[in-house]
Amino acid sequence: MKKWIATATCLLLLSATSAIAAWQEIGSNEQSTVSLDISTLKRDGDRAQMMSMLDFIKPGMDPKTKEPIRSIIGLNEYLCEKAQYRPIEYKVFSGNKGEGKVVADVKSPDSPFEAITSGSWAAGVYSIACRAK
Fold it and tell me: What is the fold of 2-129?
């Protein structure tokens, strides 16, 4: 679960944005639901960026503050040809769907790219962000 939360924490963005975003659910499992805001998709050659939200069914816990984590909203960048991604910025929330207290607000524009694991939340968002133009 800690690895899942750490991976998930590499997801996502702004509190005010969650209220106005047009979230579309793209998948779920027993742990979480993944949604994205297709209106935020930006493509530049092989790169794509899009906001997504991870909404936990069972709350996690912030490792630093020990506060509950129920959702993460963020902006990730994808290298479409290499099937890699990295977080640009994300916010972690105490409530579901980007509501409640902001537990963490992280900006990481220089984070390294990571391989996308098949079946992960990142794979779902990648498949939409990087599909044929």
Answer: Lipocalin (2.40.128)
